[in-house]
Amino acid sequence: MPVGIVDLDNTTTTRSLIRTLDAFQTSRVAAYYPNVNDARQAIQRNEIFAFLYIPKGTTEELLASRQPKISFYYSNVTLLAGGTLFKDLTTISLLGSAAVGSAKLSALGKTEDEIAAFLQPIHMDLHMINNPSANYNVYLSTVMVPGVIMMFIFLITVYSIGTELKFKRSKQWLKLANNRIWPAVIGKLLPQTCIFLTFMSVYSWYLYGYLNFPHPGGIGMILLLSVLTVLASQAFGVFIFGLMPSLRMSMSICSLWAVLGFSLSGATYPVTSMSPMLEAVAQMIPLRHYFMIYQICIFNGFPLIDAWWNVVVLCAIICLPVFTMMNIKRAMLQYVYIP
Amino acid sequence: MCFIWLQEMKTVVKDEGALIFFILLPLGYPLLYSWIYNNEVVQEVPVAVVDLSHSKSSREFIQKFNASSSVEAKYYCNNLAEAQSLIGKQAVHGILYFPADFDHRLYRGESATVGVYCDMSLMLNYKAILSSAQAVSMSMGHELTVSKSPSFTKRDEEVSSKPLDFDEVPIFNATGGYGNAIIPAVLVLILQQALLLGIGMSAGTARENSRYQDLVPISKHYNGIFRIVFGKSMCYFMIYAVMGAYITMCVPRFFSFTSMVHATDLIGLMIPYLLSCIFFGMMLSCLVRYRENVMLLVVFTSVPMLFLSGISWPQTNIPGAWQGVSWLIPSTFGIRGYLRISSMGGTLHDIQPEYQALWIQTLVYFLMTCLVYRFQIIRARRHALEAKKALK
Q1: Domains of chain B, start order
Q2: Entry pTM
């Protein structure tokens, strides 16, 4: 990520500091600016995400041990870039400090171990469980793609039932099932279930098999979650259509619900930090439960019982059409599509 | 032209579907999203503590850690396995582990280790835990260094423990809030998606109402290309000038998001943005046969479009091919431009590339729309002539 430099001191010390910064994996020194204002404008033009400001006389004061001050400015407008550069620039500033300290201590005749312990008495041992490189793709693809698939299932389910009504084939459709709504709907949706399941399996294989995303939960759990997801999404679509047997309205509701799910699933911004009312709303969103089961059972590899609530809710969603099936039947036999 | 404008206005108000997407969606959705992200930062992330050292320094560490607003030491466990099962139950999102020799090592002058285990399933929780632990370990380490260093005066201590002082200044989005980072982008995207949906819907309706599923009705008013294109786009533009003002100015004000925008810059950006969205939508609307299909099309693309704008994964790190795709979409430039003038207080001059790209898009999509409509008019006439022949 591009970083700017405002180096008013321009000595060997500051230049070596800048070279070290350039050597970091995540930051690249993109440009030098004559003053802070120019650097700020470069941020506004999106040329850099952060810049390091070294005032005049830094080296001089450093050698005279008068504790000079350098500053770095970073933009949080793209949160990820801000966070990463913040880490790098903190490290570089600490390194600058440590370099001086260690030179002084070694002059006093301390060993290297002593110097390390003196400069950093408490060492932090960070374990990033299951995602040691903080790979962003692991966050993104594991929730956003299933979210899109679920949205797809919602809409296709509603669309395929609704078009029967729209093109005035509904009575004929029901006649094929001897006017019983259950065989009609199940028969219609079963081939789709197979297709969606295949789709989910291919996606899971690509993610966990090919890209090798962390999945200590094992393949059984992944398959179970796929089945639950597909069935719950289809059932949700049927339920919504049963509530509002108008193709347009139910499709609108489904798409709004699905889009809202991306935020309320809590995969980006945790649900526990939202307002309590929204926490309750999030329980009604299938993607939320998908995410919880995924992160507890697949990503972290805990037993299924830890996510029992989410499994129960998904099962409940699968049962939802029971309440609206009669309504669908009535709509199919009586309603007329109004454009 | 005026007649077409009036007709279009009437369909927007009368048609239930178009009304939802044209008016209600841009009114309601921004409020909902702002509400979701209104808390901005994560606070009091629960953390389990496994303290095998049971010493004064480990307790001091925990106290300081607990004092941070972003984390909370909620459970004290006897071993790591117990703490791990708490993560499984989602009771905590991280573990702080003090080995038995933590205190010993510290006072023996060796470097002591504190283990931080993070549940990586949520980026923001991980960041909160990491940054708090880092801050505490640094400040405690600093105190220890000071107490051990051979110095005479207070100032001497400060200088020897930290020869090079530094300041970290978050220059834009100073709170580091999630809402402030993502809401402006979502707002601008909602404008585009609502327009695409609305235009697609009304085009779908026009086709369904027409006898031969043509986009353009046969009537003496629908004769010229420019007449149709200008008439329709004027209607959409009038509605969305109001909506755009509401979304880009009122909504951030309601939820007190950062907004450093100046009137001239905003108008300068929004006019080409809305126009390019309108013509983009009108161009795409010829693809729509049935009114419901447009929903399938637009809803799916909204999430990828948001990511393509470089809002969460920085623009510089998006692969080239995807960058190319993103140039076709008005929202890419709209979002980037709006972020820069709103969150960073830039001027039109600062967003010149985006601004120019939007005008280019407007022009290109306008010409494309004219072509598409010309084709549609010819088709409608042919259908009409065929029908006439058949009647004879």
Answers
A1: 2-38+177-391 (no CATH), 45-161 (3.40.1710.10)
A2: 0.84
- Which domains, and CATH codes, for chain A? 2-119 (3.40.1710.10), 136-334 (no CATH)
pLDDT, tens digit, 9 for 90 and up, residues A216-253: 888 889 999 999 999 999 999 999 988 888 887 888 88
Cβ distance A45 to B350 less than 8 Å, yes or no, reads yes
The 10s digit of each residue's pLDDT in B174-200 is 677 777 888 888 888 888 888 888 888
A337 interfacial to chain B (CB closer than 8 Å): no
**For residues B240 and A201, what is the distance between their CA atoms, to the nearest angstrom?**
42
8 A C-beta contact, residue B120 and residue A130: yes
B281, B301 in Cβ contact below 8 A? no
Would you call A270 and B124 a contact, using CB atoms and an 8 Å cutoff?
Answer: yes
Output DSSP code: residue A94. Answer: H
Q: What type of residue sits at position A37?
A: N
Q: DSSP states of B321-366 as a string? A: HHHHHHTT-HHHHHHHHHHHHHTS---TTTTHHHHHHHHHHHHHHH
Backbone phi and psi for residue B114, each to the nearest 5 degrees, phi listed first: -120, 130
Chain B CB within 8 Å of residue A273 CB: yes
Structure tokens given for A148: 């899109």
Q: Which two tokens stand for residue B151?
A: 């110095």
CA distance to partner chain B, nearest, from residue A63 (Å): 9
CB A127 within 8 A of CB B116: yes
Closest chain B residue to A95 measured between Cα atoms? B164
Question: How far, in Å, CA of B134 to CA of B109, rounded?
Answer: 20
